[in-house]
Amino acid sequence: MERAEDAGVYQLTDDLAIIQTIDFITPIVDDPYAFGQVAAANALSDVYAMGGKPLTAMNVVCFPVKKMDITILREILAGGIDKLHEAGVKLTGGHSVEDEELKYGLSVTGTIHPAKVILNTGARPGDKLILTKPLGTGIISTALKKKSADEDTVTSIIKSMTTLNRQATELMQAVGVHACTDVTGFGLLGHAAEMMDDSDISMVIHSAAVPLFPKTIELAGMGIAPGGLQRNREFRRDMVEVAREVPDLLADILFDPQTSGGLLISLPVEKATALLEKMHREGIKEATIIGEVTNQPKGKIIVS
Ligand code: CO
Ligand code: CO
């Protein structure tokens, strides 16, 4: 509990630990079935971020039963179950309450060998940083709510948000890495900052190398930003130094809160190219080296 880890780990025996996590969200897309899939992929992600294998899950549902048709809930749950099925995870139960605002997610239990747990701390100077999915889901879903996002753009984030981080995890476990987290509510820089907590390292993020969904810059340029973006930036303002040549809009996007975002992986340089090649070959086409771990200025993230 003392560190901001992605999930809780409890060792049962010398070679077996359980990983537990819970995550639920408000609707991020209009289609209930897609929302169910996104929520499930998002909840499973914290187990994958630690290198684990999810096994069972329980639904968490808040539903405004008096003002919303129950068929919407059925579609959401169908999306969730289908995503669990794809992940090889069994639904073992759940709990629902009446609420003003719809929310859906899952509590997930997985397993891992205690020696194979990948923490979000442990990055070392000289490491490369790989990001496996583009950024922009917060800005684009906010644009969707304001009816400012076109269909292709929305389709591109749904495709990404419903993609499990399972394959990325399996490939990273096979190669062996120093640290990993998934990029979610705190944005890329917020989660990168967590990787540096209580350590002497620093990071350089090459803003031009960071993959973005189409239209993200354009929509941000129209002033569209989720509330969390500003909070994320304020919270980490002392840790982040943005080079003058980096456009403000781009620096802001690095704080965009993500739903079901990609993995941010820190690993030795000689392994980074090999892992990247494997990811590209296996269909994780957007995976990119976006920066590196350095040793000074200590505790700072330089955005270049
Ligand atoms: Co996480
Ligand atoms: Co989470």
Structure description:
This protein has helices at residues 32-49, 70-87, 137-145, 151-161, 166-175, 187-196, 216-221, 227-235, 248-253, 269-281, and strands at residues 8-13, 16-25, 53-63, 90-98, 103-112, 128-131, 179-182, 202-205, 240-242, 263-267, 288-294, 301-303. It has 304 residues and is an alpha+beta fold. The chain folds into two domains: 8-116, PurM-like, N-terminal domain (60s Ribosomal Protein L30, Chain: A); 128-303, Alpha-Beta Complex (Phosphoribosyl-aminoimidazole Synthetase, Chain A, domain 2), CATH 3.90.650.10. The strands form two sheets. Strands 7-10-6-11-8-12-9 form a seven-stranded mixed β-sheet, with helices on both faces. A five-stranded mixed β-sheet has the order 1-2-5-3-4. Helix 3 crosses helix 4 (151-161). The structure holds cobalt (II) ion (2 copies). One cobalt (II) ion is lined by residues 23, 46, 184.
Shape: globular
CATH architectural group of the largest domain: Alpha-Beta Complex
- Mean of all residue-level pLDDT scores: 97
Q: Kindly, what is the distance between the CA atoms of the first and last residues, rounded to a whole number of angstroms?
A: 33 Å
Low-confidence stretches: none
What composes the largest sheet?
7 strands, mixed
Strand order of the largest sheet: 7-10-6-11-8-12-9
- Rg on CA atoms, Å: 19 Å
* Tally of individual domains: 2
Structural class: alpha+beta
Might you state the CATH topology name of the largest domain? Phosphoribosyl-aminoimidazole Synthetase, Chain A, domain 2
Q: Strand share of the residues?
A: 25-35%
Instruction: Name the hetero compounds present.
Output: cobalt (II) ion
* Element pattern in H and E: EEHEHEEEHHHEHEHHEHEHEE
Residue share in helices?
25-40%
**Under the CATH scheme, which class of the largest domain?**
Alpha Beta
Write down how many β-strands occur, each being a DSSP E stretch of 2 or more residues.
12
What is the CATH homologous superfamily assignment of the largest domain?
PurM-like C-terminal domain
Task: Please tally the helical runs, counting DSSP H or I stretches of 4 or more residues.
Answer: 10
